[in-house]
Design brief:
The complex is a heterodimer of chains A (about 500) and B (about 1000). Chain A has about 500 residues and is an alpha/beta fold. Chain A is built from 18 helices and 18 strands. In chain A, the strands form five sheets. Chain A has a five-stranded parallel β-sheet, with helices on both faces. A five-stranded parallel β-sheet of chain A has the order 8-16-9-10-11. In chain A, strands 12, 13, 14 and 15 form a four-stranded antiparallel β-sheet that branches. In chain A, α10 runs parallel beside α18. In chain B, about 60% of the residues are buried. The longest helix of chain B is centred in the N-terminal third of the chain and has 22 residues. Chain B starts with 20 loop residues before the first strand and ends with a helix. In chain B, α4 links the parallel β8 and β9. In chain B, the strands form eight sheets. Chain B has a ten-stranded mixed β-sheet. In chain B, strands 13-12-21-20-19-18-15-14 form an eight-stranded parallel β-sheet. In chain B, α2 crosses α3 and α16 runs parallel beside α28. Classes of the chains: A alpha/beta (about 500), B alpha/beta (about 1000). Chains A and B meet through α4 and α6 of A and α10 of B.
Chain lengths: ~500, ~1000
């Protein structure tokens, strides 16, 4: 399979970006597609390993060597079929996934790994272009009805799978449109919203019903879902934002990243938003939190016209390569630089914010920080120590808090009497996704805590199998099978 | 890197019935054969129609339809049907299907009904029976074609009707070579794999096979399967499908006796297993999937597989992402806790039933403190790494294993490919790259006196776990100058290891080779490598009597990633069965005490070693696991030269990527030994030798919950042989090889001035045909002192008078000149490496030498350098696998110069058939006085040229002159006297591959200069 010597002949290539000054003028995606011939060469780099660690490292269990081979041979339709067999939404993961598959790629041991994610995106795009992605409603219906709360990637994947099994699926979404974080969290320059709409049209045409603007637990008692549906799957995400318990958070200009991003996404899509407008134009912006959300804030702030953007990360700067003790094929904690980071942000590591300082009008004017160092204690755990004499004041007009999420909002769980785990997620095992209430299932971030889109889709698919088995006694819906690489 | 998936009876996935059968293969008792190079004796054609009494000669024998390749297309089948009007070829087609809803009763009744109908058809005059599983539907499921074929085959035999009728199978099932081999083996005379034909049609319609038409594609497929079947037959030494048909040369693994007796009578099955009930269940699963289950949009129509390459939803593999990742992390960071995770993942995989050993548990605990168990440093001395040649793996990887094993006092194995003499000596930092075990395989590459002298153990590879009964091939491009040097061959000339050792066609021959090798190095243990299959116990008993010091039993699952897939999966049996059978046979015959038994084949953990030991092994080989420890990621591209971690490759760029260190391998061995020590402590063994063969410490685990495994009966493996008290269960003393009685010691005493002062010495001795391998011991002594370069030419000249025994001049090295006035037996000059051999008719003899045979078969097998002048005719396979010796002989038998890769052979008389088969190098000059040579020559890849120019003419004349001077041959004299008249009658045999290689070398030299 594949081209036997492909990896020795071709170098890794992925889509290049438009120049920074060009791309900052708009919110659209800015990648420059590779030519078809180049994509085939990239597919040819796959070595069709006896043990494809990528396939193990991918939380969806994508059949990576198989679709790489199809791409190499120019069999795009076959590639699309292989890809969709394990992934409902490759156009999302192909843009947004941090690609644990590529970290596990055997070629990555001593060369640049196969550009799996880019290949994935292109397969999906070619499939849409060619019209191969068409609604495929199930041949038979089961008379069973399933409600899914939340329309993020987990909810959508579960909805499509359960609908395929023949059940009537209704998806509840409290926002005005489906998509969850895909729509309101991720900026358009990483995922244009038309990409979501294109997929939603397929899902609707397959018979999935979307009820948006319905906040289950507020607009609609959760218990009524239990009465009206045969099963209930909760995919509401991990939406509790981590607080920053320091003085000055009440100041004007200290903003939660999600509020900032959601508002901007609504602006870009031309929809109205509630509350005061938050803008970064002509401001000195500091983004606290070095994760993906923080990175999205950077790119958005630049596009809004910020004069400067600084990004704080409390952890120390990781190495560019694999750190010691995190060998291939495991996921390494190494320095990752997004396109937004490369748009001019200053990144500061090992830094902790002590307080926000304001003027007399209650406007943010600066941040006080201190440098920190991490030490290992005898148990192998890491402890944080502030370094004396490193206090510093940073002038700042807008501070964006991108500190991550701490778990699921408790209201729905409380009203249904669901058990939560110690990390404020709804308690359910990944063996069957069942909560303590029969007929109620949970998946995605609401079950596992904040995670990746690829995990959300994976959980949605897996949960769908177990919901189907609960309803029918057995299920023909696919499972991904064993083999996930653990985090070390 | 052999097969690491569960055997069929332990798999959770529905298996085709074919997978419960293992191909038998020849080892020791008869040779496997090479159907490619010896095509002239092979044939896969079959005939359809009635058979008649072969003792009556009449025309009815001729009323047959002959099929050249019995793997046929639908068109062929239609042709056969069109003969149906002819009473000799009346065709009846019987459906092979049953009512799925009636379950196994339905299947059983359908089989009875099928046999009844077949019998009736015969009675009504049918002569050709087509068993067809076409036209299935949601109600009708197929009877497994093999089951149907075998039952009709054996049933009609019972009814004494079998010879009246031929069976054709028309089935969707067969697709792999193994399937076809089984169907023929159980009586089919032709097979139409119609589903494969339809798949090919679909692929062509879909544009996936742009380069050929449908007819061509079908013909190619049928031809490929035909070649594959030939190979399967060749493994057991059968050359015609006519004799293979109905031969049932298979062993069942995991079918119960009731089922085998009824449907596959007289096929061996040893550990019971499933019956018709479970077979039907597996059919039903597939049938439901095909006809009943609802298609889920988005799902693939076909599963992605996973049999050969791991997939999440495919077949389980013992080496999966987790186990490889954990093992590498453990050995690189020296983390015992991570090794424990690894071994748990493997041992639990075994308990998830992937191997027979997974079904065992330890019992009769008698714990002692861990400190009382012998230290790990003692235990690892019993550990070895597998036979992997430099050539199959990179120099870096090969030396890494050697250094590691030498550090801990274990043994690494050279594999078949010689070894660079530089490696025999320790480097200044104390590292020693010498492989303690030197392998002698059928190719005899680089097997010289010096090579053998530097071995602690010499291993004769009779078979290889991943591909028993098969040879090997190192393609020309892989034979770079380094490899060529260690193998004593020409760069860029492909190297073939024949399926058989051409000096071992029987147990007596093996005994001879053991004696030869023991003579070549008296300090080395001689190890004979066998592969597990039914009857290996008997073979092992013979090998013990043939005086092997060590017998290695390899499991089916060991071996190379470069093996043909058919062999990887379907030949050989698990070592659990092999070790148990060998132990029981050897103990039962009180032979166990004189041999060491070694086990290998996917040994991965201390638990594996403990079980092998309790079943009867005392030494243990590891191959895949230490390679994984060195960085192997199970790419399974060992044959493609593209290993991305620098192990199975000779590509200089890829070799740079090798990151293994000896410490990694040492750590692995240490971890395994520690795990073993913990088990020993629990069981109460202080020393490993106490543990050997103590099967009472093993029991079947009660916790096995697997519908197919329920029927397995492990008691044959756990059987303790009843023997008189005092009978040893393990090795207690060494073999008496009787090498000490050789006349060579007498010679050595007198040859002192030559041996120690390099003085020219002439000695005269009488020789008898019981004096075997004469020359090997002296050569060993020379090699010890002078290394590969030996003594100056002709330093020690010994004149023998009489009849030399077998292997005269074996492994005879430089500086020796051995002359026999008389004659010699087989294997003259075997492994000749520098000596000069002269064999001449005794003075005063009146016979004409050129008309009389003076020496036997397989002369100069694996010779690497030296000269031989033979004043008479030699037998078959003269100069087989010669890679450097120059020889003159006055006539030879069949298969001359087979697999030759270098050197020169001059034949001053007639040759037999199949001359030069597989000859890829060297030159032969044949005096073709009668003009019939062309017909006898296997000239596919040979250039046959006149001898017209120097240096050819010069070389030929020199050799003929040498021959005359050495032997006073009348024939040589005549030729020299009329040189101009004879010269045009010589044919120069010049292999095309050799010509290209020489050209390439010349160009390379020009470039560098």
């Amino acid at each position: 399979m594949g081209k036997i010597t492909g990896f020795m002949e071709y170098k890794r290539r992925v889509e290049a970006y438009d120049p920074v000054n060009e791309r900052l003028k708009h919110y659209r995606e800015f990648t420059q597609p590779l030519k078809t011939e180049e994509l085939k060469r990239q597919g040819a780099r796959c070595m069709d390993c006896g043990i494809p660690f990528c396939h193990s490292g991918c939380p969806l269990g994508n059949l990576i060597p198989d679709f790489n081979d199809a791409v190499y041979r120019g069999q795009w339709k076959k590639a699309a079929e292989l890809l969709h067999a394990t992934n409902n939404f490759p156009e999302f993961t192909g843009r947004l996934c941090p690609a644990p598959c590529e970290e596990a790629c055997v070629l990555g041991i001593n060369e640049d790994p196969v550009s799996i994610e880019n290949i994935e995106k292109n397969i999906a795009e070619k499939a849409f272009e060619a019209g191969w992605i068409r609604p495929e409603p199930p041949a038979n219906r089961t008379e069973k009805e399933v409600a899914i709360v939340g329309s993020g990637p987990a909810g959508l994947a579960a909805a499509q799978q359960l609908n395929r099994a023949g059940h009537r699926v209704t998806v509840y979404e409290r926002d005005e449109k489906p998509g969850g974080l895909l729509r309101y969290g991720i900026p358009d320059f990483k995922l244009e919203k038309g990409v979501i709409d294109r997929r939603l049209e397929i899902l609707s045409a397959e018979g999935i019903e979307f009820r948006c603007g319905v906040h289950v637990g507020i607009d609609l008692p959760a218990a009524s879902l239990l009465e009206d549906f045969d099963a209930l799957l909760l995919c509401g995400g991990a939406t509790l934002r981590r607080a920053l318990p320091i003085p000055g958070t009440e100041l004007k200009g200290v903003v939660q990243a999600m509020d900032f991003l959601a508002q901007n996404n609504r602006k870009v899509s031309g929809t109205s938003f509630e509350g005061e407008a938050i803008g970064a134009r002509d401001k000195q912006v500091i983004v606290i939190g070095g994760g993906d959300t923080g990175s999205d804030c950077i790119g958005t702030a630049f596009r809004q016209g910020a004069t400067s953007v600084v990004n704080f990360e409390i952890l120390s700067k990781p190495p560019v390569g694999r750190p010691e003790g995190q060998p291939w094929p495991f996921w390494p904690m190494r320095l990752r630089s997004s396109s937004s980071h490369k748009e001019g942000a200053e990144r500061v590591f090992s830094i902790s914010t002590k307080s926000f300082e304001g003027d007399d009008q209650g406007n943010l004017k600066s941040l006080i920080t201190v440098e920190v160092e991490w030490t290992r204690d005898s148990n192998g755990g890491r402890t944080l120590k502030e370094i004396e004499g490193t206090e510093k004041e940073w002038p700042c007009d807008l501070a964006l808090l991108a500190l991550g999420f701490t778990g699921s909002e408790p209201s729905l769980a409380n009203s249904l009497g669901l058990q939560m785990d110690s990390r404020s997620n709804i308690q359910a095992s990944d063996k069957d996704y069942k909560t303590n209430i029969p007929g109620v299932f949970a998946a995605g971030d609401q079950r596992r805590g904040q995670s990746l889109i690829v995990w959300a889709i994976s959980e949605g698919r897996q949960a769908a199998h177990h919901v189907d088995a609960f309803l029918m006694g057995q299920s023909g819906l696919p499972l991904k099978g064993e083999g996930d690489l653990p985090r070390i | 890197m052999g097969s690491d998936t569960p055997v069929a009876v332990l798999s959770h996935r529905p298996q085709l019935i074919y997978n419960y059968f293992k191909q038998l293969f020849a080892q020791v008792t008869n040779p496997p054969l090479d159907g490619i190079r010896e095509e002239l004796i092979c044939d896969i054609s079959l005939t359809l129609g009635s058979d008649h009494n072969i003792f009556e000669v009449d025309q009815r024998h001729c009323r047959k339809l002959k099929i050249q390749n019995p793997v046929i297309s639908k068109e062929d089948l239609d042709k056969i049907k069109s003969f149906g009007e002819n009473p000799d070829f009346r065709v009846v087609s019987l459906p092979i299907k049953y009512t799925a809803s009636r379950g196994h009763n339905g299947l059983e009744e359908a089989l009875e009904d099928l046999l009844r109908k077949a019998s009736l058809a015969e009675q009504q005059g049918a002569r050709i029976l087509i068993l067809s599983d076409r036209n299935l539907d949601a109600e009708q499921a197929p009877i497994p074609a093999l089951l149907a074929c075998s039952y009709v085959n054996s049933g009609l035999q019972r009814l004494k009707k079998r010879s009246q009728i031929s069976i054709i199978v028309e089935s969707a099932e067969p697709r792999e070579v193994h399937h076809f081999a089984l169907l023929f083996g159980f009586g089919a005379s032709a097979i139409n794999p119609y589903l494969v034909n339809e798949i090919i049609a679909e692929q062509i319609a879909g544009g996936n096979l742009p380069d050929c038409s449908f007819e061509e594609a079908i013909a190619n497929y049928n031809k490929a399967i035909g070649k594959g079947i030939l190979k399967v037959m060749n493994k057991i030494g059968i050359s015609t499908l006519n004799s293979y048909r109905g031969s049932q040369l298979f062993e069942c693994l995991g079918l119960n006796t009731g089922m085998v007796r009824k449907y596959f009578p007289n096929t061996p099955t040893r550990i019971e297993g499933i019956g018709l009930y479970e077979v039907e269940k597996e059919v039903a699963v597939r049938h439901r999937k095909a006809f009943q289950s609802q298609h889920i949009p988005g799902d693939l129509d076909l599963e992605p597989g996973g049999e050969y390459r791991w997939r999440r939803n495919g077949e389980k593999h013992m080496f999966d992402p987790m186990s490889v990742a954990l093992l590498q992390k453990a050995v690189r960071n020296n983390e015992p806790s991570t090794y424990k995770e690894y071994s748990r993942s493997i041992n639990e995989q075994s308990r998830q039933l992937m191997t027979l050993r997974g079904m065992f548990e330890f019992t009769n605990f008698d714990p002692i403190p861990l400190e009382e168990v012998e230290p790990w440093t003692e235990i690892v001395k019993r550990f070895k790494t597998g036979a992997m040649s430099y050539g199959s793996i990179s120099r870096e990887a090969h030396e890494n294993l050697a250094i590691a094993m030498n550090r801990i006092g274990g043994k690494s194995n050279s594999g078949e490919g010689g070894e660079d003499p530089e490696r025999y000596y320790q480097t200044q930092n104390g590292d020693w790259r010498n492989s303690a075990i030197k392998q002698v395989a059928s190719g005899r590459f680089g097997v010289t006196s010096h090579y053998l002298t530097n071995a602690a153990e010499i291993q004769i590879k009779m078979a290889q776990g991943a591909k028993p009964g098969e040879g090997g091939q190192l393609p020309g491009p892989k034979v770079n100058p380094d490899i060529a040097r260690t193998r004593n061959s020409t760069p860029y000339v492909g190297l073939i290891s024949p399926p058989p050792h051409h000096d071992i066609y029987s147990i007596e021959d093996l005994s001879q080779l053991i004696y030869d090798l023991k003579s070549a190095n008296r300090k080395a243990r001689i190890n004979v490598k066998l592969v597990s299959e039914v009857g290996v116990g008997t073979v092992a008993a013979g090998v013990a009597k043939a005086k092997a010091d060590v017998i290695l039993i390899s499991g089916h699952d060991g071996g190379t990633g470069a093996s043909p897939l058919t062999s990887l999966k379907h030949a050989g049996l698990p070592w659990e069965l092999g070790i148990a059978e060998v132990q029981q046979t050897l103990v039962g015959n009180d032979l166990r005490n004189r041999v060491v038994v070694e086990c290998d084949g996917q040994l991965k953990t201390g638990r594996d070693v403990a079980i092998a030991c309790l079943l009867g092994a005392e030494e243990f080989g590891f191959a895949t696991a230490p390679l994984v420890a060195s960085g192997c990621v199970m790419m399974r591209v060992c044959h493609l030269n593209t290993c991305p971690v620098g192990i199975a490759t000779q590509n200089p760029e890829l070799r740079k990527k090798f990151e293994g260190k000896p410490e990694h391998v040492v750590n692995y061995m240490y971890f395994v030994a520690q795990e073993l020590r913990e088990i020993m402590a629990k069981l109460g063994f202080r020393k490993l030798e106490e543990m050997v063969g103590q099967v009472g410490k093993l029991d079947r685990s009660p916790a096995i919950d697997h519908y197919k495994a329920q029927g397995i009966d492990l008691s044959p493996i756990l059987h303790q042989v009843l023997v008189p008290e005092g009978t040893q269960l393990g090795n207690t003393h060494a073999q008496d090889h009787k090498v000490g009685e050789s006349i060579e010691f007498e010679i050595i005493e007198k040859a002192h001035p030559a041996l120690f002062r390099k003085e020219k010495t002439n000695l005269d001795f009488r020789i008898r045909n019981t004096d075997r391998a004469v020359g090997a011991i002296i050569s060993n002594e020379i090699s010890k002192i002078y290394g590969a370069k030996g003594l100056p030419e002709n330093t020690l000249k010994i004149n023998f008078t009489g009849s030399a025994g077998q292997s005269f001049g074996a492994f005879a090295t430089r500086g020796l000149s051995l002359v026999v006035n008389g004659n010699a037996n087989d294997y003259l000059g075997k492994g000749l490496c520098g000596a000069r051999l002269v064999l001449k008719v005794p003075e005063g003899a009146t016979l004409r030498p050129e008309e009389n045979i003076i020496t036997g078969n397989v002369c100069l097998y694996g010779a690497t350098s030296g000269e031989a002048y033979i004043n008479g005719k030699a037998g078959e396979r003269f100069c087989v696998r010669n890679s450097g010796a120059r020889a003159v002989v006055e006539g030879i038998g069949d298969h001359g110069c087979e697999y030759m890769t270098g050197g020169v052979a001059v034949i001053l008389g007639s040759t037999g058939r199949n001359f030069g088969a597989g000859m890829s190098g060297g030159i032969a000059y044949v005096l073709d006085s009668q003009g019939g040579f062309l017909k006898k020559c296997n000239n596919d890849s040979l250039n046959l040229l006149p001898v017209t120019e120097d240096p050819d003419v010069e070389e030929l004349r020199e050799l003929v002159e040498n021959h005359y001077n050495a032997t006073q041959s009348p024939r040589a004299q005549k030729i020299l006297e009329s040189w101009e008249a004879y010269l045009p009658k010589f044919v120069k045999v010049f292999p095309e591959e050799y010509r290209q290689a020489l050209e390439r070398l010349e160009n390379e030299q020009l470039e560098t200069s």
